[in-house]
């Protein structure tokens, strides 16, 4: 049986391969081209026919089965369902069924439309890693101590006090705040007490809360350029006036920020490991921006998202530790150092801001879930966190070395910071990084374009290549795919 005629895969589509196969089969079933009861080829046979991995076919078949288009019989094979989902047999009148009408953009707020437009500037990638190799900043989920973590969660669920099932302190679980204060004081040279810490839903929760608290519509905000799109999205949501400030080898160019917006209300920066270029802000620049913030009555939002992973030497001290005027708001997160779905981050606030932040926070989500906070507090207090960081530094250094060796024959100029979970591959002149990432997505790669993080044009085009979340064979496989992409272009 020949299910596919002509060229099935369309390079201009952002959809992954399994989604394109799913769409083709679903259309054939609904049109009657594939009749009810028709036996489909095995996943292995169809994978060989199309020249894709068997997992790609498995994913397409599984989705069609889950939606009722296919039926699977053990030992017999996979068949087109004789009775299709009722909803999809109803004649399609796009003017009447409300759930099929694309909503008018006019119903959304202006800042919502701006945030949606920001999302469209990136190559569309699925959240799952199963089909995306070399995705930047993916942590090593294969090396996380799941058994230990589950034991801590079970212990807390079993023995947690009844008082922890009611509404909680908006600042977060006290033992976790104490554990975080002890950790950052030693490892990051941050000066704080547990009372200055507010537990939030990841770094994005910290950005959202800070934007709500400090920004009015039209307020100027410095943003590193290129810079973190999540921060840009939060500032768009606050209707702030975003002022792009360029980056060089010493980090954010403070003099340029002052020239463009001397009275900015807030400056967002990643001084320990700039996102996405990976440079470290020099001491002279750190002192200069602290001096500006003091004189301008501005706040500095320091995002310290993965500073623990520095391979060449001890992680650099945080900017907050140099602040003697209460101008730095520090953001930390466990997404990169543990696992992203944990969604626990924290703010360390200057003491005068704490009560006001907590008052507004109670109107948002009250507080973060307690069970995971309690398990994380134990994870840190019992020494598991520090041991995990030590193991991960060694593992990530090895994976970084594997990537650099594998890409040595590619026509890329590699920029490999001694920290983090990604490298930058600068492309040859004339090659477009967005086109490369679109083509790479068709080959199961999750690399990202540097230009997608820019507000102003960058002189060079490059791609972010991740290594942290991938084993040796996966990294080598990803580089082979990237080589094929670059050769084809």
Sequence-ordered SSE layout with sheet pairings:
Blueprint: H1 17-31, H2 43-50, H3 54-66, E1 70-73, E2 77-80, H4 86-89, H5 110-119, H6 146-159, H7 174-187, E3 197-200, H8 202-214, E4 220-225, H9 229-237, E5 241-248, E6 251-252, H10 254-260, E7 266-269, H11 283-296, E8 299-303, E9 328-333, E10 345-348, H12 354-361, H13 370-381, H14 384-406, E11 413-415, E12 422-426, H15 433-442, E13 448-449, E14 462-466, H16 472-488
Parallel strand pairs: 4-5, 4-7, 7-8, 8-9
Antiparallel strand pairs: 1-2, 3-10, 5-6, 9-10, 11-12, 12-14, 13-14
Helix pairs in contact: 1-3, 2-3, 5-9, 6-13, 7-13, 8-9, 14-16
Summarize the structure.
This protein is an alpha/beta fold. It has helices at residues 17-31, 43-50, 54-66, 86-89, 110-119, 146-159, 174-187, 202-214, 229-237, 254-260, 283-296, 354-361, 370-381, 384-406, 433-442, 472-488; strands at residues 70-73, 77-80, 197-200, 220-225, 241-248, 251-252, 266-269, 299-303, 328-333, 345-348, 413-415, 422-426, 448-449, 462-466. The protein has three domains: 17-89, Arc Repressor Mutant, subunit A (Orthogonal Bundle), CATH 1.10.10; 123-143 and 390-488, Aspartate Aminotransferase, domain 1; 146-385, Type I PLP-dependent aspartate aminotransferase-like (Major domain) (Aspartate Aminotransferase, domain 2, 3-Layer(aba) Sandwich).
């Amino acid at each position: 049986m020949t299910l596919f005629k002509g060229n099935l895969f369309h390079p201009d589509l952002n959809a992954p391969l399994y989604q394109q196969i799913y769409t083709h089969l679903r259309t054939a079933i609904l049109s009657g081209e594939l009749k009810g009861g028709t036996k489909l080829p095995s996943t292995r046979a169809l994978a060989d026919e199309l020249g894709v991995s068997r997992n790609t076919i498995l994913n397409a078949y599984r989705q069609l089965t889950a939606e009722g288009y296919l039926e699977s019989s053990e030992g017999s094979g996979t068949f087109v369902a004789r009775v299709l989902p009722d909803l999809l047999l109803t004649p399609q009148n796009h003017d009447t069924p409300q759930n099929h009408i694309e909503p008018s953009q006019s119903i959304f707020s202006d800042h919502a439309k701006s945030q949606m437009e920001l999302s469209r500037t990136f190559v569309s990638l699925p959240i799952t890693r199963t089909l995306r190799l070399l995705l930047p900043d993916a942590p090593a989920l294969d090396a996380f101590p799941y058994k230990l973590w589950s034991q801590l969660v079970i212990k807390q669920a079993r023995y947690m006090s009844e008082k922890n099932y009611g509404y909680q302190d908006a600042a977060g679980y006290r033992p976790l705040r104490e554990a975080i204060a002890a950790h950052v004081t030693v490892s990051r040279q941050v000066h704080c007490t547990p009372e200055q810490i507010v537990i939030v839903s990841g770094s994005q929760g910290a950005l959202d809360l800070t934007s709500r608290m400090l920004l009015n519509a039209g307020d100027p905000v410095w943003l590193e350029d290129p810079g973190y799109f999540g921060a840009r999205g939060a500032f768009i949501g606050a209707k702030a006036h975003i002022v792009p400030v360029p980056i060089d080898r010493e980090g954010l160019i403070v003099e340029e920020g002052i020239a463009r917006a001397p009275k900015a209300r807030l400056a967002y920066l990643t001084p320990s490991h700039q996102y996405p270029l990976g440079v470290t802000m020099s001491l002279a620049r750190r002192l200069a921006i602290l001096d500006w913030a003091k004189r301008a009555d501005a706040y500095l939002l320091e995002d310290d998202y993965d500073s623990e992973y520095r391979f060449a030497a001890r992680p650099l001290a945080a900017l907050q530790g140099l602040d003697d005027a209460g101008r730095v708001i520090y953001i930390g997160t466990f997404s990169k150092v543990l696992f992203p779905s944990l969604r626990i981050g924290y703010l360390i606030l200057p003491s005068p801001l704490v009560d006001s932040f907590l008052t507004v926070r109670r109107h948002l989500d009250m507080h973060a879930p307690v069970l995971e906070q309690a398990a994380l507090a134990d994870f840190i207090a019992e020494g598991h966190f520090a041991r995990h960081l030590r193991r991960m530094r060694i593992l990530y250094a090895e994976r970084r070395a594997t990537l650099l060796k594998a890409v040595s024959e590619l026509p890329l100029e590699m920029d490999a910071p001694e920290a983090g979970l990604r490298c930058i591959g600068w492309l040859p002149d004339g090659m477009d990084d967005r086109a490369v990432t679109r083509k790479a997505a068709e080959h199961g790669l999750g690399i990202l374009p540097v230009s997608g993080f820019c507000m102003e044009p960058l002189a060079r085009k490059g791609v972010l290549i991740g290594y942290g979340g991938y084993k040796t064979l996966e990294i080598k496989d990803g580089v082979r795919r990237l080589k094929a992409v670059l050769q084809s272009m």
